[in-house]
Write a sequence for this structure.
């Protein structure tokens, strides 16, 4: 399939797709709304297909890359769903290493997120990417089915699963004891929750276009935060000004970047919303940020 860019689609169609991705519309409602953009022989279904993820595009680091060692691990989560399984990536050279928890979007542990974990591994971080869908069988290999399963999991218990995974990762003997977290969309919101819940146990958090924590919880945040937003992502960005005011009042160390012209999901290189320039700059900043706060 030819890779398309966000500029190849009307902004209104991208907004419609964003509502579908986040559960405000089902597939039928999206297709009904997309019909008015189906021109030049295209059908609404063809538009839907062109906007869906193509996971072949996400592989920046092959699974067999000699710089890393990969495996799967299961973590006990007594306060959550009992356990959570995830993808563990270790640098091939001797540790211990600083660790980063990688939190997926609202579809589960898909190949894009696994590749993000491998990217961190090649940068000499211990990375663990848990699958919030573990309790319902795990990511099913299909994005739409993943979304359906995601809605079946108790959100509070899923949050506890990620907290358990973070604590497990930090306590591993091959971790230096320095822990960071990065997440995307739903995962960005989870990073903000981790910052509140873990306090000083989290050294650095990088939420990409994630829902903000409650303003009254900002004083509980001890981690340094690097917050990334797409300039066109009004749904998420509207929550930033009050959260920023709360972070300032609480004396939290933070840096925020808004990437002009970028959509929600701009880092995800499997969809047309991917913005290469913004994604690469944001990722460089992410690695620099983790190096600063996790290697000291």
């Amino acid at each position: 399939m030819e890779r398309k860019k966000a500029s190849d689609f009307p902004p209104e169609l991208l907004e419609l797709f964003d509502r579908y991705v986040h559960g405000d519309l089902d597939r039928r409602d999206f297709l009904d709304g997309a019909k008015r953009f189906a021109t030049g022989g295209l059908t609404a279904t063809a538009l839907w297909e062109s906007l869906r993820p193509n996971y072949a595009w996400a592989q920046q680091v092959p699974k067999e890359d000699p710089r890393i060692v990969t495996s799967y691990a299961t973590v006990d989560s007594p306060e959550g769903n009992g356990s959570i399984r995830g993808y563990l990536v270790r640098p091939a050279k001797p540790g211990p290493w600083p660790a980063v928890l990688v939190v997926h979007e609202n579809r589960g542990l898909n190949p894009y997120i696994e590749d993000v974990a491998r990217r961190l591994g090649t940068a000499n971080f211990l990375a663990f990417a848990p699958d919030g869908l573990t309790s319902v069988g795990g990511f099913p290999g299909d994005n739409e089915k993943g979304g359906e399963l995601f809605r079946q999991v108790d959100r509070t218990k899923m949050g506890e699963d990620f907290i358990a995974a973070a604590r497990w990762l930090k306590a591993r003997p091959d971790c230096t004891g320095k822990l960071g977290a990065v997440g995307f969309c739903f995962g960005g919101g989870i990073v903000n929750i981790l910052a509140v819940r873990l306090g000083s146990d989290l050294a650095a958090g990088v939420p990409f276009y994630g829902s903000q924590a409650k303003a009254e919880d900002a004083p509980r945040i001890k981690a340094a935060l690097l917050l990334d937003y797409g300039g066109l992502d009004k749904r998420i960005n509207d929550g930033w000004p009050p959260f920023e005011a709360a972070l300032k009042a609480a004396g939290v160390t933070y840096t925020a970047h808004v990437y002009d012209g970028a959509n929600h999901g701009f880092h995800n290189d499997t969809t047309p919303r991917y913005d290469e320039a913004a994604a690469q700059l944001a990722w460089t900043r992410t690695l620099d940020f983790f190096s600063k706060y996790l290697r000291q």
